[in-house]
Inverse folding.
């Protein structure tokens, strides 16, 4: 079984156009194309290969910043108001906004992370469309559809404009079939209609599916994808519905569980989806924890001092009675991490004892804030306050919410920023909500001049340029300014 899975994984890497080392594996010597298309085991193997690729170093770029989906989430947060880079180097091009230009390898990293995997899931979807949905391949079909919709959504967030007010603008190339022909950019409206269609079908086909572990996409993950997408589209009724449904199978962590380091996918009760890292798959310094665990002396952050910290304003907004304040250094040299400065994050700590900490891509906690924001924007303030209080009192027993109107939405967004710091939501929310970058303020702890930026809301720098290699290879694609 391990040998078969290895071959199937290599087939996914072939489909995604990875390094030539993988091209020496001849899948057809074991299974021909027809057998792959009709074998549920083979098709699930292709999907499993996608899951593995999402946390594999070097598939999208040779940089040590290129460790898959978690790297993209981290890069996006580095562009927000809430993350502080204390020393220039790794992730610095995201932090200072130079990584969004077409000649930068940073654009290529994000582009390849998702388009490579879209090719693989399209192989699965096309095969099942051709041969028919069966009880054996139904959930495989659902996983592939959910992933395709989400991957296009991630690309649209980065390389396209926001949905609201821009439905006729250029977005991204849309791929729904296996092809070597480059496509032009579709409009925002067309891209999101396809994303929604994929998620609608995914929900149907994932109903009743019981996954083996949290690395796989099940119904709750498809609902969580849908909640994020609906929020972006301003479809607040659907966003509230999907967010509420997605969070139901999960329980909230205790204080000790929340402060444990965010490295254990299966053990974290509100962790929904992520990548399982083992001794065989860990990529050491080319990994999330090497860059964001300030307590690890063997990593870039802890060992070489490329420390990631929380913005002073956000830290100051966390009450003393809220245990999330403990996820950051309270003063310079505070015990037990005496080498770390004030505001340094100790939220992310790999305590896997050398095995390599898991990557958590999504937590059920996010769904509370999506639901609360959506309800608030629909005018259902009492229910929005109830949802916000339900999660906030678990972090701070003294928490109360008494504001209304715009102030209520602001409070929901503040609590979301506190809860999900460093988890990939801050910058995408800034772009969605047309919020400016403001790091150059009196008392700012953004110490690097290159990153001490103020960028007005709606600035072209909030949208990435399409990689130069794609422009050269696909003349149908029009570049962003």
């Amino acid at each position: 079984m391990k040998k078969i899975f290895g071959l199937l994984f290599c087939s996914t890497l072939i489909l995604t156009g990875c390094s030539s080392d993988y091209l020496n594996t001849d899948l057809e010597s074991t299974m021909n194309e027809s057998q792959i298309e009709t074998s549920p085991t083979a098709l699930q193997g292709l999907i499993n290969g996608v899951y593995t690729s999402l946390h594999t170093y070097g598939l999208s770029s040779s940089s040590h910043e290129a460790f898959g989906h978690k790297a993209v989430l981290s890069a996006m947060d580095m562009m927000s108001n809430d993350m502080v880079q204390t020393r220039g180097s790794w992730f610095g091009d995201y932090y200072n906004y130079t990584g969004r230009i077409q000649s930068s390898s940073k654009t290529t990293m994000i582009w390849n992370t998702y388009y490579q995997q879209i090719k693989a899931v399209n192989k699965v979807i096309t095969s099942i469309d051709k041969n028919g949905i069966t009880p054996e391949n139904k959930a495989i079909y659902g996983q592939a559809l959910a992933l395709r919709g989400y991957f296009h959504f991630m690309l649209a967030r980065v390389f396209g404009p926001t949905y609201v007010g821009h439905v006729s603008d250029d977005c991204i190339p849309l791929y729904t079939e296996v092809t070597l022909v480059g496509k032009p950019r579709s409009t925002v409206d067309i891209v999101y209609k396809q994303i929604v269609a994929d998620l609608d079908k995914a929900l149907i086909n994932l109903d009743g599916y019981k996954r083996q572990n949290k690395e796989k996409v099940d119904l709750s993950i498809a609902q969580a994808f849908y909640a994020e997408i609906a929020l972006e589209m301003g479809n607040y009724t659907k966003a509230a519905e999907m967010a509420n449904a997605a969070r139901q199978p999960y329980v909230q962590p205790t204080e000790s569980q929340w402060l444990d380091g965010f490295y254990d996918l299966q053990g974290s009760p509100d962790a929904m989806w992520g990548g399982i890292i083992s001794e065989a798959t860990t990529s050491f310094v080319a990994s999330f924890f090497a860059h964001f665990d300030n307590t690890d002396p063997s990593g870039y952050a802890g060992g070489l001092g490329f420390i990631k910290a929380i913005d002073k304003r956000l830290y100051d907004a966390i009450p003393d009675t809220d245990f999330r304040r403990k996820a950051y250094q309270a003063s310079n040299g505070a015990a037990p991490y005496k080498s770390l400065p004030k505001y340094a994050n100790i939220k992310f700590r790999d305590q896997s004892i050398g095995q390599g900490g898991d990557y958590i891509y999504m937590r059920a906690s996010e769904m509370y804030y999506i639901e609360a924001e959506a309800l608030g924007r629909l005018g259902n303030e009492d229910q929005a306050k109830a949802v916000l209080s339900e999660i906030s009192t678990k972090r701070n027993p003294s928490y109360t919410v008494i504001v209304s109107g715009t102030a209520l939405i602001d409070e929901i967004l503040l609590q979301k920023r506190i809860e999900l710091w460093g988890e990939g939501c801050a910058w995408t929310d800034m772009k969605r909500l047309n919020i400016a970058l403001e790091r150059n303020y009196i008392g700012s702890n953004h110490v690097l001049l290159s990153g001490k930026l103020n960028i007005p809301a709606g600035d072209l720098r909030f949208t990435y340029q399409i990689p130069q290699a794609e422009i050269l290879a696909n003349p149908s694609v029009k570049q962003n300014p």
Summary: Confidence is low (pLDDT under 50) at residues 1-30. The chain is about 45% helix and 5% strand.
